[in-house]
Design goal:
Elements lengths: L5 E2 L4 E6 L5 E5 L5 E2 L3 E6 L2 E10 L14 E2 L7 H14 L3 H8 L12 E6 L9 H12 L7 H8 L3 H9 L3 E6 L19 H15 L4 E7 L5 H14 L3 E5 L6 H12 L4 E3 L5 H12 L5 E4 L11 E7 L7 E4 L1 E4 H12 L2 E6 L4 H8 L4 E5 L10 E6 L13 H13 L2 E5 L8 E4 L16 E3 L4 E3 L6 E3 L13 E4 L3 H11 L5 E4 L7 H12 L5 E4 L12 E6 L13 H13 L12 E6 L5 H8 L2 H15 L5 E10 L2 H13 L2 H5 L3 E13 L2 E11 L4 H10 L9 E6 L6
Parallel strand pairs: 10-17, 10-18, 11-13, 11-14, 12-13, 14-17, 19-29, 20-27, 20-28, 26-27, 28-29
Antiparallel strand pairs: 1-4, 2-3, 2-6, 5-6, 5-7, 8-9, 15-16, 21-25, 22-23, 23-24, 30-32, 30-33, 31-32
The structure holds adenosine-5'-diphosphate and zinc ion (ZN).
Length: about 725
């Protein structure tokens, strides 16, 4: 697409504002303005931020156009970024202003780049310690002593700024002037990497060759956990850096990055830029600026790093590409994995999708030749895949209120005797999934949602995992009023931890569950401790399934392998396959001699997913899963789009959805089917009634255009109704 890149003073230009109104015409200010320039424009009585989006085209009277108020001193968005945002908006049916907000999600872009005041730790704790003061120190320590703006520090700690000032006076903290926007240290791609095994170096060479083409392409890098995928794609990063281009590595969870950053430093001599919810505001701004000015070579980040304004992006790695956290289902519904492919195709960059258990979509794309495929067949060195087995819970002699079978317990004891680690995996946060009354059978539900409340004993409260609402654990049953009859039913990780403490009193146990850590740093520390061997028994949710290296871990016990086998969800089988394969892959990674063992406790040892996991013939699982999707016309062989409507009143949302469904000619015109409306599986969230519709269309059908036409002819929506479109939905809640 060719675009005019500069608009002289007085030219009619289009500016995309961050407001709902979208693109409006203005006049270029004195001195002219570049395409993509961030600007402030008048909008009625207000001033709002926007970006110069192209030539103006409105029929608005030229004489009435208002000029741009002022330019923001930040690098302009590139034509490539503008095209990416436009095409993503079209694909996901997201209004452009929301896209602009994603691309400018760095604070203080409007501030000059000069020095700023920051607070950092300077001396010993004060003599007089208060709760407020220790809250401040905790925030500082959680961020590894990073610098904060004074107001930000007070806000994060939940205290007034006088508390912060008090600590400065006491000499515990100091306030200094620090330069903003310092370039990141250069990474050196020519430091020697680890010598690669033959299949690894072949894989690395294939990725390097793809990069040398300097054109778009996607490669699926598949290999069992521990086969060296990370080593291999770091070689692709090295090639990208040698070419003088920038590389982005997306990871599913911040928990991955502490180990990961050190690995990058070991390979390239310096740490990469880091982007996730745990970084400070000043780091955020710095990284945004440095990406745009090519002063950072490599960025490691969570999914939203995809919207950083890289000046010359040459490579995007999506590690654990199958991971569900790449799908955002809030405000903007998008898959970062799929949008990485879109962005790379516009930038002329390469994509590497790495996984031990790829999504069925990527598996099919590789099979069809749309993606190249590289396989690492064995684990690095002597480490072998764990021996897999099941424990049939129908025959195990389970004690009441216990979740670890006698056989699994014996295996744990054997590990403990040898100084090796065991991991117990249960994908359920909290103490117990159900709190029920023994007198009347009533289960405690959330007042605002259609979900059961989960007991969290550490917090001593019931928590709704849907909306986050909490309430005290009731003494009397809310339904029948009988006291002292409330019981916890079923296990969560906290309850499992209790059982471990009772049955293995001399073992050091550690629970890894996302809600038990106040900060990303605390979680990283816990993971580092486990890695150093300071734990005998690890109890964890899906948090542990991802990428950590625990060298002394030789036993994995899956407490309830049946969880997730039967869901209302298209991907239930795929997800539990991936999860269990990965958890099992934690065992015996380093190959220090001991081969790992993974034991799955299940009531259905003959279930096809369990059998595929045990056999180790993963291809069979994917081929079978792909075939069943194909015969059902489901993704990736057909296309799905979810429509989610919500309103405080159930009849209102139901009526409106029914009318929409009746007038769906534009959908029928492309051969799409419309299912629903039906109450969403969780029919109330945060006090809003929810209704879903699902559209299924043939693979090549223009779904987005049809949905746009359909919604355009829809009758006016009742006030307070919300409608979201979820293209390629991952979850069906
Ligand atoms: P994956 O990403 O496939 O899970 P990793 O790249 O993390 O695998 O490798 C697993 C472990 O093996 C890591 O500790 C890594 O450092 C080590 N490793 C892999 N390849 C090599 C190699 N060629 N030389 C030395 N160590 C290696
Ligand atoms: Zn709730």
């Amino acid at each position: 697409m060719s675009r005019v890149l500069f608009f002289p003073h007085g030219a009619r230009i289009a500016v995309l504002t961050q407001e709902v109104v979208g693109v409006l015409d203005y006049l270029a200010p004195e001195g002219g303005v570049r395409l993509g320039q961030l600007v402030v424009v008048p909008l009625g009585p207000r001033r709002v931020m926007g970006a110069v989006w192209g030539e103006g085209m409105g029929d608005f009277d030229m004489a009435k156009l208002r000029p741009v108020a002022r330019l923001i001193d930040a690098p302009p968005l590139s034509p490539e970024m503008i095209e990416f945002l436009e095409r993503m908006a079209e694909y996901t049916l997201t209004p452009l202003p929301s896209m602009l907000r994603m691309a400018t999600r760095a604070p203080d872009l409007d501030q000059p780049p000069s020095a700023r005041r920051i607070i950092h730790r300077a001396g010993p704790p004060p003599e007089r310690m208060t709760d407020a003061r220790s809250a401040v120190l905790r925030v500082i320590d959680d961020h590894g002593g990073a610098g904060f703006a004074p107001g930000e520090l007070a806000q994060l700690a939940g205290v007034t700024s006088s508390v912060v000032q008090g600590l400065v006076k006491a000499g515990t903290l100091a306030e200094v002037l620090a330069p903003r926007d310092v370039p990141y240290p250069k990474l050196d791609p020519d430091l020697p990497g680890k010598p690669l095994a033959p299949d690894q170096s072949e894989a690395a060479e294939q990725l390097r060759a793809a990069l040398r083409s300097r054109r778009y392409g996607t490669t699926l890098l598949r290999g069992v956990t521990g086969s060296g995928k990370t080593e291999v794609y770091l070689e692709a990063v090295a090639e990208c850096l040698r070419q003088g281009r920038q590389a982005l590595v997306l990871l599913p969870e911040i928990a991955l990055s502490s180990e990961f950053l050190n690995r990058v430093e070991a390979r390239f001599g310096a740490q990469p830029g880091e982007w996730h919810s745990g970084i400070t505001r000043s780091e955020r701004r710095r990284l945004w600026m440095m990406a745009a000015t090519h002063n950072v070579g490599m960025v490691v980040g969570a999914r939203s790093a995809l919207f950083l304004p890289f000046a010359d992006l040459g490579l995007i790695v999506v590690d654990e590409e199958h991971d569900g956290s790449y799908k955002q289902e809030d405000v903007v519904y998008y898959s970062a994995r799929d949008m990485a492919v879109l962005r790379a195709s516009i930038a002329g960059a390469q994509v590497v999708l790495a996984s031990a258990t790829p999504s069925v979509e990527s598996w099919v794309n590789a099979g069809a030749g749309k993606y190249a495929r590289v396989d690492l067949r064995s684990r690095y060195g002597t480490a072998e895949l764990p021996e897999m087995g099941t424990i049939d819970l129908r025959e195990a002699d389970m004690e009441k209120g216990r979740w670890i079978s006698p056989r699994l317990a014996a295996e744990i004891r054997a590990r403990q005797a040898k100084g090796e680690q065991s991991l117990l995996f249960l994908n359920r946060r909290g103490y117990a999934p159900i709190t029920a009354c023994r007198a009347c059978g009533q289960q405690v539900g959330c007042d605002d949602c259609d979900a059961r409340m989960v007991e969290h004993r550490f917090q001593n409260r019931l928590v709704c995992h849907q909306c986050g609402a909490t309430k005290p654990i009731p003494v009397a049953c809310p339904a029948c009023g009988v006291e002292g009859k409330m019981v916890a039913v079923g296990p969560g990780v906290e309850r499992l931890a209790e059982e471990v403490a009772e049955r293995f009193p001399d073992a050091r146990a550690s629970v890894l569950s996302s809600d038990l850590f106040g900060s990303a740093r605390a979680l990283k520390e816990a993971i580092a401790e486990i890695g150093a061997g300071e734990t005998d028994i690890i109890i964890g949710t899906q948090l542990v399934a991802k990428g950590h290296n625990f060298p002394r871990l030789t036993l994995v016990g899956v407490i309830d392998a049946d969880l997730g086998l039967q869901g209302a969800d298209l991907r239930a089988a795929e997800r539990s396959f991936q999860l269990m394969r990965q958890v099992a892959g934690r065992a015996g990674r380093e190959g220090g001699g001991a081969r790992g063992v993974a034991l799955l406790q299940t009531h259905q040892p003959d279930h096809p997913v369990i059998r595929a996991i045990l056999s180790g013939r993963d291809e069979e699982f994917w081929d079978a899963e792909a075939a069943s999707r194909q015969s059902a016309g489901m993704p990736p062989y057909g296309r799905l789009a979810g429509i989610i409507l919500s309103h405080p009143d159930q009849p209102v949302v139901e009526d409106y959805a029914r009318v929409l469904a009746q007038r769906s000619d534009p959908l029928r015109a492309i051969g799409a089917e419309l299912w629903g409306p039906a109450p969403a599986p969780i029919a109330r969230i945060r006090g809003r009634a929810r209704v879903r519709m699902l559209i299924r269309a043939p693979r090549q059908a223009p779904v987005q255009a049809a949905i746009r036409d359909w919604l355009a002819i829809a009758p006016k929506a009742p006030t307070n109704l919300r409608l979201s479109v979820d293209i390629d939905p991952q979850s069906f809640f």
